[in-house]
Amino acid sequence: MKKIGILTSGGDAPGMNAAIRAVVRAGIYNGLEVVGIKRGYEGLINGDIEKMNLSSVADIIHKGGTILRSARCLEFQEEKGFKKALNVMEIFGIDGLVVIGGDGSLRGAEALSKAGIPTIGLPGTIDNDLAYTEYTIGFMTAVGTVVNAISNLRDTSASHDRINIIEVMGRHCGDIALYAGIAGGAESIVIPEVPLSIDEICKRLIQSRNRGKRHSIIMLAEGVVESSYEFKNQIDERAGVETRLTILGHLQRGGSPTVFDRVLASRLGETAVKLLIEGKGSRAVGMSKGEICDLDISEALLIKKEINTELYELAKVLSI
Ligand code: F6P
Question: What domains can be seen in the chain, in order of their start residue?
Fold first, then answer.
């Protein structure tokens, strides 16, 4: 192993830069040459690759986004594009690869591993939807951003005796809504993993109003309903209230990473380099019981993400 490549792919996440920095610095520290591949698998197909040195990753640990930029590349999923990528790796003499991204990106890493390229996958997504790891890079930062938004909305919600609905990201995973809902003291958490009818939500709202609560926060994970606007209208109609809807959208994806994400990303990045040096490819690196772990990438991707029922129940108890 002489030369390794690094790329970030899929939706960006705060902390990706810290991971890039860790891979580049740990690689150089251990005598490797490190190259950065731009815009994920797209750069791998097009040979958009440049040598990284110690200063290429200076002053980035605190920055959101990814200096390598990112993309969702459909071409890589086709045979022609995939072969092109393998060819580019050969031309550039890249012996091993570190891929930072979510589920789709790690599936790309798995395919490269199967094609004989030692590849390590690092979990980089705000969604926290990779079951093999307790936390993904960017998740805690996104939750912090959402909690700040909840605090602001709570102020105005209290002033106007209003119900505020906040739609958060997470695609098919309710972790952002769940963690932010607990940390922000939301009254209702609506996530894809736990079916909850509009009637049940309205019942809870009416009950809490009867108990004297004058304002409430409803966390709504994207993907639960087709339209959050329609969801809002139905709550208004059936509970006889006037709600306000805020869709936080992509602002959850940016911002300076938290300490947790910076440390996690640094640890994962260094481990990825160590694994490649030890001759181990086809691994997914993550966190288990607070420790850094690595497992076979195919096995890792087969694990089904489940909701933390203990946390969900806690949220219910505390939002009474
Ligand atoms: O996977 C990360 C994520 O932010 C999801 O939470 C969201 O559904 C999706 O990406 C948005 O993707 P895009 O940036 O392509 O709009």
Answer: 3-138+257-302 (3.40.50.450), 140-253 (3.40.50.460)
